[in-house]
Fold:
Amino acid sequence: MSIAFLTASFSPFTIASSDKWQVKRIEVSSGASLSLQMHFHRSEHWVVVNGTAKVEVGNIEKIMGPNESVYIPLEAKHRLSNPCLLYTSDAADEEDS
Structure:
């Protein structure tokens, strides 16, 4: 089993591990996503620590926030995205006209 801590480029690094598990921190930039994946030899458990995550597991898509988690079973196709896009403008309000 893997546990990933997700925050709002993809840059994983291992925080802790044993012969049966790993804890990794994965940061996904705004508007970016990881490739669609599937694993034959491990399940995963993802926990969102900060920001917003779009999680796809099989045919289900879910938007998750801090302290929410999802289990990814063996052989389930899955992907992680950060759907938050930051927009900048010279305008001081939200009017586009």
